[in-house]
Amino acid sequence: MAEEAPLLVEIGTEELPPRVLRQLMDAFASELVKELDQARLNPQLVKPFASPRRLAVRIESIKRVQPDEKVERLGPKEEAALDKDGNWTKAAIGFARSCGVDTESLEVVETEKGRRIAWRGNQPGKYAQDLIPEAIEAALKRLPIPKRMRWGAGEAEFVRPIHWVVALLADEVVDGSILGIPCGRVTYGHRFHGAAREGIVVERSVDYEKLLMERGYVIADFHVRRQRVEQDILSHAQRLGGSPVIDDGLLDEITALVEWPVALTGDFDERFLAVPEEALISSMQGHQRCIPVRSQSGRLLASFIAVANIESSNPDEVRRGNERVIRPRLADAEFFWLQDRRKSLAERLDDLAAVTFHRRLGDLRSRSQRIAEIASVLAPYIGADKDNARRAGELCKADLVTEMVGEFPDLQGIMGGYYAAADGEGEDVSQAIKEHYKPAFAGDQLPSTELGLVVSVADRVDTLVSIFAADGPPSADKDPFALRRAAIGLLRCLIEGGYDLNLLELLETAAAQLPLDIAPDDVANQVFIFCQERLRGYYTDHGYAAEFYAAVAAVRPLSMFDFHRRLTACAQFWQLSEAESLAAANKRIRNILKNADECVAGDPATPPPGTESAEQELASALKQSWQKARPLIDDGDYSNALIALANLYVPINRFFDEVMVMDDDPGKRAKRLQLLDGIRVAFSSVADLSELPV
């Protein structure tokens, strides 16, 4: 018999949650491999599977038997194990019995804690057949399932009730049960096609996919099924003369809903195209998992694509069924659109007063007023109109009390922009309202207009400061107001938008809008520190070393865009041949100054010349380099400023080679410390280079 064998595990369930099916599939494969690795079965070549009613993993090779393991067990100390005559004591006999050996197999060994008795031997490996059920159950327990359910009279828990388990090691059924279900070799296909009810016998794990495909009408490979869904959707859209409106998340969800995908098209009344397209798209995608189609000119067509889970003998009836279901959904969107426009956004501000934002912060009307005030202060710094900023900030939350947003929450802001335009608010204000939630997620675009960016920043600043004032920072595992996401969005607006604003002053402006009994004196600084912590992760995600962040954070720039320019300058500086030596010199200078008894203040513009030749050379070089670097720093050209300061490389090295800084003469020592502090001041005008890796 071969030492290795393939393993197939399939957990058959009722329909699994489609939005997390792909995540569950990947997690199950990963956790099972982890368990088998820990069991020393050496799993190789793993392939996961998932469909609405199954999670499965096929592993091309695992060991049939664990390798034998050399073990050493330490027992009692020598004086407790042997009596004065050298005979084994009861403690030693008991230790030998616990190891399954007699006392002749024991020996005395030296350890860090003295001489002890020990047993050394080989522990025979266990059979994979005996280890697999426990590994499967352990993997299932660690799946990311927020809420598990029970079924029947048993105690087993899983995301959905389990109906069958396939577990094959080569062609042998694994002896055991999983969450109360005995392992077997019978799987089940599509509910309505093929060998659905009687089951499909899997004789060999390598036949699994083929059997399900040919006899069960199930494409078990999630990625193959997804590719087929995507190709069918594209093909149908091209026949309609357009392109599908679909993203990866919806494509994954549709793939998770079907085992045998069959795409089809349908039509709806063209009158619905008068409704804002986002409402139509949300209605079709969100409720029915249908895919809208956009024409070559960019407008929605009065058609859609659906993906059925059945190959019908009467596809026209399936198409008509989808049309019948989608029509009332679109009619609802049309009704909300017409009904909401009977009342302007400005007239809805009083309705916001009836909606509580936070128990200590009042209602949404008060929040809108705060956003409007912050936006009006911020607008001139970004180049936006102050009055328009105030108006957009005031109206930006008004659509939260419309029927459309009540039915489709993902349209908040977007519908506000449409309603503002219908009210005659002006294109700038309407667009700012429409996109003030941007960026809403990682990779999302920034607002496209300056006014939109003003309101986006004002919204996030108010969220951060007000919630910090009322509740404090979010905990490690709970962030109900999404403060971390708000901070990242704020940072992206300032950095990627290229706006050199004092963030701390902006936060203080927001704090000034809060009731006096709410805001602690240091809330703006608390939020500033919180944003800087998020900034560390932002740069890590963009591939910058943590030391670059630390070097800039040490000088605490108050503008996040200025922070970005300094950090990118450090990254560019690090490419210079002199960089590592200069970073080491800055670290040495920092330590010397920290340990010096006297406190000195150096000025790179007027360094003391000193007495030694190397000292005088360094003072002259510092003065010249600073004359070049200072105007560059004032202009924010930190990269070229560091290049100018890099000319200090040779004189700094010579100085440390030839000059004793801590001279016995107090006058010489003070001048040399003053010179070093001037160097520190020059470099820290950009960043603290002593933080860079050396």
Describe this structure in words.
This protein is an alpha+beta fold and 694 residues long. Strands 1, 2, 3, 9, 10, 11 and 12 form a seven-stranded mixed beta sheet that branches. A hairpin with a 6-residue loop joins β7 (149-150) and β8. The protein is flat.
Main traits of this protein?
flat; 15% strand; alpha+beta; 26 helices; 4-stranded antiparallel β-sheet
Number of strands: 20
**Class by alpha and beta content:** alpha+beta
Determine Rg (CA atoms, Å).
35 Å
**Percentage of residues in strands:** 15-25%
Give the averaged pLDDT, no decimals.
92
- Helix coverage percent: 40-55%
Largest sheet: 7 strands, mixed
Low-confidence stretches: none
The number of helical elements comes to 26
Give the CA-CA distance, first to last residue.
56 Å
Overall spatial form = flat
Oligomer: single chain
List the helices and strands and how they pair.
Elements: E1 4-13, H1 21-38, E2 44-51, E3 54-63, E4 69-77, H2 78-81, H3 90-99, E5 106-111, E6 114-123, H4 128-141, E7 149-150, E8 157-158, E9 162-169, E10 172-173, E11 177-178, E12 181-184, E13 186-187, E14 200-201, H5 208-216, H6 222-239, E15 242-244, H7 248-257, E16 262-267, H8 277-288, E17 291-295, E18 300-308, H9 315-340, H10 349-352, E19 356-358, E20 362-363, H11 364-382, H12 386-395, H13 403-407, H14 414-422, H15 427-435, H16 450-471, H17 483-497, H18 503-511, H19 523-541, H20 546-553, H21 560-573, H22 579-595, H23 613-634, H24 638-645, H25 649-658, H26 666-684
Parallel strand pairs: 9-12
Antiparallel strand pairs: 1-3, 1-9, 2-3, 4-6, 5-6, 7-8, 9-10, 11-12, 13-14, 15-17, 16-18, 17-18, 19-20
Helix pairs in contact: 1-4, 6-7, 8-9, 11-12, 11-16, 12-15, 12-16, 14-15, 15-16, 16-17, 16-18, 16-19, 17-19, 17-21, 18-19, 19-20, 20-21, 21-24, 22-26, 23-24, 23-25, 23-26
